[in-house]
Design brief:
With 143 residues, the chain is an alpha+beta fold. The protein starts with 11 loop residues before the first helix and ends with a strand. The chain has a five-stranded mixed sheet with strand order 1-2-3-4-5, with helices on both faces.
């Protein structure tokens, strides 16, 4: 989806929130499901699912260098996405923690949450996604 960006003097996230609240018939239901983070789940998602979400909700509207993506779900509803990719440049990963550990570095390159998501969804999702990335052998994150 390609939404025009009106010049209104309002923050981008506020514009998205108002648009979604007005156009999504399930907005109130989703907001109710997201009232408690105890009901949230985080799992790996495919590139296309992540891309559709990022293009819809994230300011840059592109995936950057995304290799691996995770989604935050409340029930069946996707509430947030975190995307991990490569660092910029050929020697960036080594400059972070040394060449011997460069293979453990990933960049948190994109992320967004839906306007109906729990207020702490981003922190919850980033923490959970980093834990899942650690299981894959990535232990150093650049954002």
């Amino acid at each position: 989806m390609n939404y025009p960006i009106p010049v209104t003097g309002k923050a981008w996230q506020r514009q998205i929130r108002e648009r979604e609240a007005a156009s999504d018939p399930l907005f109130a239901e989703k907001q109710a499901l997201a009232a408690n983070l105890m009901d949230a789940t985080v799992r790996e998602i495919d590139y296309q699912t992540a891309k559709e979400f990022i293009v819809r909700y994230e300011w840059l509207k592109n995936m950057g260098t995304t290799d691996i993506s995770f989604g935050l779900y409340f029930g069946e509803h996707l509430a947030g996405v975190e995307c991990f990719g490569r660092t910029a440049g050929t020697k960036s990963a080594g400059s972070v923690c040394g060449q011997e550990y460069a293979h453990m570095v990933k960049t948190l390159c994109r992320g967004a949450c839906a306007p109906w998501a729990h207020p702490h969804s981003a922190s919850f999702l980033i923490s959970a996604a980093c834990r899942l990335m650690s299981e894959r052998g990535f232990h150093v994150f650049v954002a």
